[in-house]
Design goal:
BirA Bifunctional Protein, domain 2, 27% strand, 3 domains, 23 strands, alpha+beta, Translation Initiation Factor IF3, Rossmann fold, five-stranded mixed beta sheet, 15 helices, single chain
Length: 484
């Protein structure tokens, strides 16, 4: 971290979560060197440690996306304005967030270029060129890219003017195939969040007012953060034939008729890094699930003045042993007090801290501290790598169990509107209630409580009671929450 005088905004202390959750989050992002503010308002610089977390998430997602038959490609950052305006509902939905390029090479452009807020328009244009027959389908393309949405209120990782993501865009013969694709990706996202990030999510369909602009149906996964607010972790959209008709994406069907394709799009972003911070972190900083921790183990040599001669060689041997076993490990050789190093690596959320000193070498053991529970365990050096792997697996399980328990403790069910409004005071978590499906009713609930329908779970039973607000027959069970 820079020691220059102008770095006056350097965070030296972390605000307690219970005192100010929002400031705690910002302190952790800065102090753990995950990201920093850039000279461009609303944009962040993702620092190496934060980017390493994103890379591990990205690698897992990329492998799973490819395993389902999708391939990666890359499409331009700039989109001619005329392409974006072809799909009216889509344009209306993104209009407040669109950034334009009006000049290039010192000259005014004949047509403004849009800096992509998403890529349906350019994908649609190219698919119209590439697709001729049913034999060309399905097309299953994903891209890893950046997008720009001119946000008024920003927060590192959660909502920034520019952010990183993957966006899949697929084309299919039938509506059934498109729907199957949409739900397959939703399941993929949910599984990655739960099994890799240790973040439990609720899968469901968005209401009409909350769906993606231009989509037929939108599905999402919703996670509960440590302050009781919900976070939309990912979305998957069945686009129907809306974009196909706007961009004239047609194909000769098996019966020789000319038909429009059925499309989908889906994406997950760097906000997942923010989700990990807010679900697992504590007053000391990050707590990282082992599967996405840049370092799963940090080795800290402990000893007197000659520790570099007495302890360091054995620490280096252990580092190699763990690395050879496929464990991401770092050795902290800095000339700092052990207590200072402990605090720094706790801040960075490393799952296991391995301490080794002269007495440990004599006993042929090491002392291991877990970041999630702070429990300290003496472990023999013989078979150390296998024992470390077991502990990492246990931490991964422990974190998801803890997150599920928190979500369940902060999920309530109600069918009375007065009780519903009382429950939504503050940031209570999820409140489940029957809803009639009416947009005006939904809008009034939002006005009364500042809460929105996060989604309607796919496997929820059909409600037997009336709408929580208006008393009309309920069509679905909706999960409400205040959100980021």
């Amino acid at each position: 971290m820079s020691k220059k005088p102008e770095a006056a905004s350097f965070v030296t202390e972390i605000t307690p979560r219970s005192q100010d959750f929002s400031q705690w989050y910002l302190d952790v992002v800065r102090r753990a060197e995950l990201a920093d503010y850039s000279p461009v308002k609303g944009c962040m610089v993702i620092r190496p440690y934060g980017y390493a977390i994103w890379e591990l998430i990205q690698q897992t997602l990329d492998a799973r996306i490819k395993a389902t038959g999708h391939v990666n490609a890359y499409f331009p950052l700039f989109i001619p304005e005329s392409l974006l305006t072809k799909e009216a509902e889509h344009v209306e939905g993104f209009a407040p967030q669109v950034a334009y390029v009006t000049h290039g090479g010192g000259e005014e452009l004949q047509e403004k270029l849009v800096v992509r807020p998403t890529s349906e328009a350019i994908f649609g244009t190219m698919y119209a060129k590439w697709i001729q027959s049913w034999r060309d389908l399905p097309i299953l393309i994903n891209q890893w890219a950046n997008v720009v949405r001119w946000e008024k209120v920003t927060r590192p990782f959660l909502r920034t003017t520019e952010f990183l993501w993957q966006e899949g865009h697929t084309a299919h013969e039938t509506e059934a195939e498109a729907e199957e694709e949409t739900l397959k990706i939703l399941d993929l996202y949910a599984d990655v969040c739960r099994s890799v990030l240790a973040v439990p999510v609720v899968k469901g369909r968005k209401s009409e007012s909350e769906k993606f602009a231009g989509a037929l149906r939108t599905y999402s996964i919703e996670a509960l953060m440590g302050d009781g607010r919900a976070l939309q972790a990912a979305t998957s959209h069945n686009l129907g034939q809306n974009f196909a008709k706007a961009f004239d994406i047609t194909f000769q069907a098996r019966d020789k008729s000319v038909q429009h394709i059925w499309g989908t799009s889906w994406g997950i972003t760097t906000r997942l890094v923010g989700a990990v911070i807010m679900v697992h972190g504590d007053d000391s900083g990050l707590i990282l699930p082992p599967l996405i921790a840049p370092y799963q183990v940090v080795i800290i040599p402990i000893g007197r003045e000659n520790w570099r001669e007495t302890v360091l060689p054995r620490a280096q041997e252990i580092q190699k042993e763990l690395a050879d076993a496929g464990i991401r490990v770092t050795l902290d050789e800095r000339d700092e007090r052990p207590g200072w190093k402990f605090s720094e690596w706790e801040l960075r959320g490393v799952p296991l801290r391995l301490e080794i000193g002269p007495k440990d070498i004599e006993k042929s053991q090491v002392l291991i501290a877990r970041r999630d529970t702070r429990e300290k365990i003496g472990i023999p050096m013989a078979g150390l790598a296998a024992r470390v792997a077991e502990l990492l697996s246990d931490i991964q399980r422990s974190l998801i169990d803890r997150a599920v328990a928190f979500r369940d403790e902060h999920t309530q069910r109600v069918d009375n509107y007065e009780a519903f409004k009382e429950m939504l005071e503050g940031r209570p978590g999820f409140v489940i209630a029957p809803w009639c499906g009416d947009n005006e009713c939904e809008a009034q609930i939002k006005a009364d409580t500042q809460a929105t329908i996060r989604n309607m779970p796919l496997d929820a039973p059909k409600p037997q009671s009336a709408c929580v607000r208006c008393g009309k027959p309920a069509t679905s069970e909706a999960w409400f929450a205040k959100s980021y």
